[in-house]
């Protein structure tokens, strides 16, 4: 048996639980994760001393370490945006990792560390307090600085930049740039550790990024460093974050099995692969290539030679124009009707399934949730129960990486298993479709009456959890009734005491 130690980005289910769930049926791999008590909570960093001690206890019997450097150095994803560590402190922790590698030279280290995001809105929910007032201006500051730094723009942009910089207090600018500098230093040092053989494989994901900005500028520096050192096969940089744990354990699985799964990609829109989605910096087709490659797969030219057909319900609007899933239920942009053909997309899916192709669906037409129209069609046509995997949560990168990881691991067991959806895919239908598109929108509308806000459930968490469970069970009886005899949703919880994400307590009865 191959033992993998997995230190996740944070304690939310998408990071801590998802990789465990998708590997649960694979007897050849043992995934060992820290207890939740060692992973902190949102803005409260993990107890780093205890976390490192736990790691050292586990290493002697492990063959792989999959670890978030944001977790090991800063205590989690949100603490990585709030810390006040200096280069020497970060260097000391990286040297500790190097010493452990030297102590266990046969250990394969797969690491990831984010390029810090730059949200385009005012909110301090996951950022420093000053982001509540200056977030949008910080985003524009980075965007214009990078635009002009690339020799684009003109006097109008220069004037806008000067006005924005003047409007942001000096101490805010200093704090923000200092932290970005430290985090960028960690990424450059991580690349050096790859060159030294300490880290065997490194992903540097761009978290909630855009075509221009601080993240884009840092990415260029890192890509040049990777190019200069000749490390392009071992260092990958592309949009993503919370799905990385899933994709890296899938890469290990494929390495252990000595296989390279073949993936054929099919889009709902002709322009789909060229669209630059919201929260990302490049065409969707390029991001999908990155995700398939990191999972250990390869893109093939047709469905007949593919192990997996990845159906991609793609956006028709780029950047910040791309709609959110819950908004599209109320009023969908015309382009979602004229620039794609859902009827043909569904017919193609039926064809692939009828010809015994394994089909997974990455539903990324909208941000943060499923395409309600498409899901109703698939439910009516009986396709939901035939898919190998499904996802529609958060950013396109989050969804695509998760769907690929789940599907590529499930393929080996699919022929031997009972036909029909597994627990993970049913959880995705409930959360990505039921909660993110419908129930979350309902709770958001009722927030004031319920005495909560979107980002703070206050002391109402237990009651809101009960209400969310009731609404999701109504959703299941309406759209997933055929699965309710086999699948039970027992509880809902809010890991960060806000409406944005949920955790599910569910069970699939043996068929």
**For the residues shown, what is the average pLDDT?**
96
Number of strands: 13
Strand content: 5-15%
Helical fraction equals 40-55%
The CATH topology label of the largest domain is: Rossmann fold
Q: Could you give the order of strands across the largest sheet?
A: 2-1-3-4-5-6
Shape assignment = globular
- N- and C-termini, Cα separation: 28 Å
Total number of domains: 3
**Largest sheet: number of strands, sense, barrel closure:** 6 strands, parallel
The second-level CATH architecture of the largest domain is: 3-Layer(aba) Sandwich
**CA-based gyration radius:** 22 Å
Unreliable stretches: none
* Individual helix count: 19
Label the structural class.
alpha/beta
CATH class of the largest domain: Alpha Beta
Structure description:
With 511 residues, this protein is of the alpha/beta class. The chain folds into three domains: 2-119 and 172-256, Rossmann fold (3-Layer(aba) Sandwich), CATH 3.40.50; 260-417, Rossmann fold, CATH 3.40.50; 439-511, no CATH class. Helices cover 47% and strands 13% of the residues. The protein is built from 19 helices and 13 strands. The protein has helices at 13-16, 18-22, 48-58, 69-74, 87-103, 131-149, 155-167, 170-196, 214-229, 244-257, 284-294, 325-330, 335-338, 342-354, 372-381, 396-414, 423-445, 447-450, 461-479, and strands at residues 2-7, 29-32, 64-68, 108-112, 201-206, 235-239, 262-267, 298-299, 308-313, 359-363, 389-391, 487-493, 503-508. It has a six-stranded parallel sheet, with helices on both faces. Strand 7 (262-267), helix 11 and strand 8 form a beta-alpha-beta unit. Helix 5 (87-103) packs parallel to helix 8 (170-196). The model has no long low-confidence stretch (mean pLDDT 96).
